[in-house]
């Protein structure tokens, strides 16, 4: 049996650095050491066991040091290397992945079902308490759930009496024992109250009157600390769906205890948090561990080596480019020689044979041959000049000549007619290129003139120039936003825009079809006579006008680049890309973003860089009050049950005073006592005092109350002996003020 030196309930350490930030530091796991049993004396005091769903607490009655507290979990598996069986209990079950996967808890929800795990817990407790005899010769006082099933009680009694031969066993309800420790003996009037017990899987309310618990009127709410931790985990997963670190339920339990609060008026709190400033004040940060990028500064020697490597790589690339250029030049020279040799055949053979030879080489005629030779010759000369370091001069292109176009077809043979047709096409292409060149030159001159006028306007009146561009920028941004809004509206089939679109489609479909025989003055709707008629098709088109949007984005990018360059008041935060990603102030306060938008050369886009430390943060604001509010409004978490306020209202008539006692770990939540007091105040007479009393130590007072009661003579009247167990069975218990009533005598 092994125990951890650090008895903290989790294998991650959580620390509050300030009032607003909770740091979670990574930890490899619990350290292990051999358990040292206590010295076993001759006395036989009762053993007090608080068998909770989360913690297993045990110790001898009357112990001043308090109980030993462990995680109520055990794990049994075989070690891979040695194949030896290993049994772990408590926090050691979180040692590694194998032990965590094989861990079991005695409770499943509110029911005690896994008795193998319970037996492991008993073994651990008795060994730790130093019991070295064959049997446990101590009376045992143990907790059980309110209205515990007889099956669970029978198997627990069987385990204690048969396996450990305990002389006697008594069962008590933990919340009543906590009340006993905080108020005194059960006969005192201070015991009269409503006892609210916050457990792991449920919350129970027990009325106590005249020092006796009225278990017939007790109520249970199916929401406890475990469900609260799960709800907080789910809310965090929904709020941060791509969170880089793993958030565990155990971490959420500690976050719940440290950061969550109960609001006196939840609806009023929500209205208050609707203000972004209040939301920021209520925000709490949970910082998870992260690995910072390694940004070590390089020395001068490393920088010099890196620069030399870059220069060497550049030289190699230049050599490869030169080699490739020389290979291309050699290939072009060879092609030129072949074409010049081909041209010599014109004078050595018939024209028809020469034309056939040209076609075999992929040439349409002599003109194509000459143009190819001229192009290769120019390319070779240009390459040689470049290698020699001479300035390149653009060769003057001669105007092409088309001699056959003016010759009648009657004076031409068949091949010349084909050549004439080809020359017609070449001339048309040449004229089209010439026209396009002239238009391009005119556009260039117009652009230069526009830039000159804009420069003069910007120089003479910079404020007016910037105002004009900002107006154009605002119009384009509004146009793009309207297009996005229309696209989003059309995606909703119940929106007004989509309904109007369907009406337009129905109107177009309901038009009477034109008949084959035209009637005089009939079926003439004149659709299309006005150019605006065709806008109906643009209106019913769901797809966004991509061409128009691209033009708008390009124009917007030009305007933004000018403003960023010349207007100091226009910053990257004013660009369309930043405005598109900007969230409302309330949404930014609810979930702050650590992505920093930067300008991208592509129009309308941004490059976002993440803050690694910020990416590993959970911001909790509304969740801090939403999770505990489920105890009072279970419907907010989808639980079909009455809230704590309604349950207390139904049970107050059974008590004689306005006192409420709260116990259990969730009772430590800030504001819980005040909220309980606020719930019962309107239900009582104005002159009746109202008190909501919280246990001094809600986690350990149940065990302390049991230890206190087990040290009295009255404890002997609450136990069932082994002889009575053998006679009546494990389901029967004695009826007393701190135990269950079911099957009691």
From TrEMBL:
Composition bias (Basic and acidic residues) maps to 436-460
Q: Which family does it belong to?
A: Belongs to the actin family.
Q: What phylogenetic lineage does the species belong to?
A: Eukaryota, Fungi, Dikarya, Basidiomycota, Agaricomycotina
List all membrane-crossing ranges. Answer: none
- Pfam families noted in UniProt: Actin
Which InterPro entries does this one have? Actin, ATPase_NBD
Q: What are the boundaries of the region Disordered?
A: 436-462
The cross-references to Gene3D superfamilies, in alphabetical order and at most eight, read: 3.30.420.40, Actin, Chain A, domain 4
- What is this protein called in UniProt? Uncharacterized protein
**Organism, per UniProt?**
Rhizoctonia solani
């Amino acid at each position: 049996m092994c125990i951890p030196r650090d008895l903290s309930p989790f294998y991650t350490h959580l620390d509050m650095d300030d009032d607003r930030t909770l740091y979670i530091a990574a930890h490899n796991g619990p350290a292990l050491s051999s358990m040292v049993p206590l010295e076993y004396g001759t006395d036989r005091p009762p053993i007090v066991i608080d068998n909770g769903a989360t913690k297993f607490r045990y110790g001898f009655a009357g112990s001043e040091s308090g109980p030993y507290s462990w995680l109520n979990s055990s794990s049994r598996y075989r070690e891979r290397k040695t194949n030896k069986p290993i049994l772990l209990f408590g926090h050691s079950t979180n040692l590694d992945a194998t032990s965590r996967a094989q861990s079991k808890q005695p409770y499943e929800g509110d029911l005690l079902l896994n008795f193998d795990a319970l037996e492991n817990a008993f073994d651990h407790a008795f060994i730790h308490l130093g019991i070295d005899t064959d049997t446990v010769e101590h009376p045992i006082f143990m907790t059980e759930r309110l209205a515990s099933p007889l099956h669970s009680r029978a198997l627990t009694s069987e385990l204690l009496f048969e396996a450990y031969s305990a002389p006697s066993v008594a069962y008590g309800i933990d919340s009543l024992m906590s009340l006993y420790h905080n108020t005194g003996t059960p006969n005192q009037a201070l015991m009269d109250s409503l006892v609210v017990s916050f457990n792991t899987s449920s919350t129970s309310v027990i009325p106590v009157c005249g020092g006796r618990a009225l278990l017939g009127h007790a109520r249970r709410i199916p929401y406890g600390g475990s469900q609260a931790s799960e709800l907080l985990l789910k809310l965090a997963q929904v709020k941060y769906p791509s969170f880089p670190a793993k958030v565990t339920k155990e971490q959420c339990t500690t976050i719940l205890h440290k950061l969550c609060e109960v609001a006196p008026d939840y609806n009023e709190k929500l209205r208050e948090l609707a203000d972004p400033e209040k939301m920021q004040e209520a925000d709490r940060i949970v910082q998870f561990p992260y690995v910072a990028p390694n940004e070590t500064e390089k020395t001068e020697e490393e920088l010099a080596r890196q620069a030399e490597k870059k220069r060497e790589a550049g030289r190699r690339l230049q050599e490869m480019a030169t080699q490739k250029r020389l290979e291309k030049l050699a290939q072009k020279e060879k092609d030129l020689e072949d074409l010049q040799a081909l041209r010599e055949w014109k004078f050595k053979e018939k024209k028809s044979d020469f034309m056939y030879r040209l076609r075999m080489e992929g040439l349409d005629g002599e003109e194509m041959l000459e143009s190819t030779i001229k192009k290769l010759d120019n390319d070779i000369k240009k390459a040689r000049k470049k290698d020699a370091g001479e300035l390149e001069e653009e060769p003057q292109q001669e105007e092409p000549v088309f001699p056959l176009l003016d010759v009648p077809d009657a004076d031409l043979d068949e091949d010349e007619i084909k050549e004439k047709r080809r020359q017609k096409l070449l001339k048309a292409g040449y004229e089209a290129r010439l026209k396009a060149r002239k238009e391009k030159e005119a556009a260039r001159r117009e652009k230069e003139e526009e830039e000159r006028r804009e420069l003069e306007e910007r120089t003479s009146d910079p404020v007016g120039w910037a105002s004009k561009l900002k107006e154009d920028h605002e119009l384009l941004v509004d146009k793009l936003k309207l297009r996005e809004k229309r696209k989003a509206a059309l995606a909703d089939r119940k929106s007004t825009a989509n309904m109007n679109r369907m009406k337009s489609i129905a109107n177009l479909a309901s038009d009477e079809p034109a008949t084959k025989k035209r009637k005089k003055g009939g079926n003439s709707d004149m659709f299309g006579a006005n150019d605006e008629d065709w806008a109906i098709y643009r209106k019913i088109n769901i797809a966004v006008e991509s061409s128009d949007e691209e033009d708008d984005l390009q124009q917007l990018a030009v305007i933004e680049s000018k403003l960023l360059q010349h207007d100091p008041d226009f910053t990257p935060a004013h660009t369309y890309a930043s405005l598109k990603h900007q969230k409302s102030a309330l949404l930014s306060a609810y979930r702050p973003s650590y992505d920093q938008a930067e300008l991208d050369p592509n129009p309308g886009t941004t490059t976002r860089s993440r803050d690694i430390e910020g990416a590993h943060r959970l911001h909790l604001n509304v969740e801090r009050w939403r999770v505990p509010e489920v105890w009072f409004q279970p419907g907010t978490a989808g639980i079909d049950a009455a809230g704590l306020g309604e349950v207390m209202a139904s049970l107050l008539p059974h008590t004689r005073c306005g006192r409420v006692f709260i116990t259990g770990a969730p009772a430590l939540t800030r504001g819980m006592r005040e909220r309980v007091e606020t719930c019962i105040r309107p239900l009582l007479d104005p002159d009746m005092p109202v008190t909501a009393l919280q246990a001094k130590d809600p986690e350990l007072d149940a065990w302390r109350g049991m230890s206190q009661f087990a040290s009295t003579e009255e404890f002997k009247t609450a136990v069932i002996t082994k002889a009575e167990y053998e006679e009546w069975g494990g389901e029967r218990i004695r009826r007393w003020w701190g135990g269950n009533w079911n099957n009691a005598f």
